[in-house]
Amino acid sequence: AAGVIQSPRHLIKEKRETATLKCYPIPRHDTVYWYQQGPGQDPQFLISFYEKMQSDKGSIPDRFSAQQFSDYHSELNMSSLELGDSALYFCASSGSVYEQYFGPGTRLTVT
Amino acid sequence: TQLLEQSPQFLSIQEGENLTVYCNSSSVFSSLQWYRQEPGEGPVLLVTVVTGGEVKKLKRLTFQFGDARKDSSLHITAAQPGDTGLYLCAGDTSGTYKYIFGTGTRLKVLA
């Protein structure tokens, strides 16, 4: 069965640079969620989209923005990167309110 | 303030033992999900519970949603080394697209 695809899997950036993470949801899933997970921490909800519209917002810094495109893939744009942004970034997709299927994550390292 | 508290945080047991992990909150959840996460990978959905008092079984795993929909438990019977991982509960308070994760329970099953 098709799963959530995230790219890139690993990304190394320097402070103050910009990064773009991509997420391709499971086919026919209309909802995408973004999470940030620091070392030894639980995933923190950043933002979600339903049918290409932002549906909810969590602890997403103003330096980050995201959108969902007409083909339902989503991109998380991160600017002015800081050392504290180093984390695993997960995308999850859903075809119903009561389930989420997570991608393998993008490991972002800011140096 | 963490809305979802899990206990215990860490658990190390011998193969064949039983264990229970708890997920507690003062908030009422529309639904609650349990995930298992391996290091460096995305959380994998195990089950979703929606109705107060609901009990679901998945092989050796039994999940229960509290009558008031504020808490949940995961019971593993005859644990195996393959059960080792991080167990996370996640709840949705309003039926919207925003999930809060619990603090996590790190389980290690020794052969």
Characterization of this structure:
The complex is a heterodimer of chains A (111) and B (111). Chain A is mostly beta strands and 111 residues long. Helices cover 0% and strands 51% of the residues of chain A. Chain A contains no helices and eleven strands. Chain A has strands at 5-7, 10-13, 19-24, 31-37, 44-50, 53-57, 64-68, 74-78, 87-94, 101-102, 106-110. In chain A, strands 2, 4, 5, 6, 9, 10 and 11 form a seven-stranded mixed β-sheet that branches. In chain A, strands 1-3-8-7 form a four-stranded antiparallel β-sheet, with no helix packed on it. Chain A starts with a strand and ends with a strand. Chain B is mainly beta and 111 residues long. Chain B is built from no helices and eleven strands. In chain B, the strands form two sheets. In chain B, strands 2, 4, 5, 9, 10 and 11 form a six-stranded mixed β-sheet that branches. A five-stranded antiparallel β-sheet of chain B has the order 1-3-8-7-6, with no helix packed on it. In chain B, a hairpin with a 2-residue loop joins strand 6 (55-58) and strand 7 (61-65). Chain B is globular and about 40 Å long. Classes of the chains: A mainly beta (111), B mainly beta (111). The A-B interface holds A 4, 31, 33, 35, 42-45, 48-50, 55-56, 58, 88, 90, 92, 94, 97-105, 107 and B 30-31, 33, 35, 40-45, 48, 50, 88, 90, 92, 95-104.
Strand elements of chain A, count: 11
Shape of chain B: globular
Q: Describe the main β-sheet of chain A briefly.
A: 7 strands, mixed
Structural Rg of chain B: 13 Å
Mean of residue pLDDT values of chain A: 94
Structural key phrases:
heterodimer; A: 111 residues; mainly beta; seven-stranded mixed β-sheet; four-stranded antiparallel β-sheet; 11 strands; 0% helix; globular; B: 111 residues; six-stranded mixed β-sheet; five-stranded antiparallel β-sheet
